[in-house]
Amino acid sequence: MSDIAPPISDLDHPFVKTLARLVRSADSYGVWERKTDGEVLADFIVSREERRSRPIIDDPDPDIIDRVEAFYGAVSLAVEQVTGRVASPILKLNHEGFGRVLLTAGRLVVISRTLRDVHRFGFDDFAALATAGGKLVDEATAMIGRFPEVADF
Questions:
Q1: What share of the chain is helix, strand, coil (3-state, %, to 5)?
Q2: What is the per-residue pLDDT across 95-128, written as a single tens digit (0 to 9) for each?
Q3: HSE value, Cβ hemisphere, 13 Å, CA-based, for 132
Q4: What does the alpha-carbon distance between residue 39 and residue 57 come to, in Å, rounded to a whole number?
Q5: Cα dihedral angle (111, 113, 119, 125), rounded to 10 degrees?
């Protein structure tokens, strides 16, 4: 028996599963009940050509803002699953799609990102989505591990 774990598909990545659960939780009428995770998360996948075709400066669509909020909400849920500490996202965007996202645990800021061109938000494929989310979860978890006493407040 090999000690190497078999590769997981991109849709089975823990972060992607968390994001799918969060998106499904907003489905109060059961419309997405029979859809696969790939179908539920399809709007998060935006090709490079599609992103480039969007204007440089544009007001973000409310659906895109919802996806950005869901993405960082899933990061916070995944951090909470790993660390057992409540993590909360704070998202502030202006009308042109520029802003900042903070993720806090207790009094500790575990993620701080500047957001630009939110109207172009999306990932090339599910692997890129899993990588981006997993990287943020790892970064936040490491910060909590480094300063646990601040995260406990």
A1: 50, 15, 35
A2: 888 999 999 999 999 999 999 989 899 999 999 9
A3: 17
A4: 29
A5: -60
Q: Which of 13, 22, 23 is nearest to 138 (CA)?
A: 13
SS3 26: coil
Q: Encoding tokens for residue 59?
A: 């007001």
* pTM exceeding the 0.85 threshold for the entire prediction: yes
Interatomic CA distance for residues 6 and 8, integer angstroms: 6
Q: Report how far residue 2's alpha carbon sits from residue 43's, in angstroms, rounded to the nearest whole number.
A: 37
For each of the domains in the chain, give its residue range(s) and CATH number, in order of start: 11-151 (1.10.3100.20)
| Cα(148)–Cα(153) distance, integer angstroms | 9
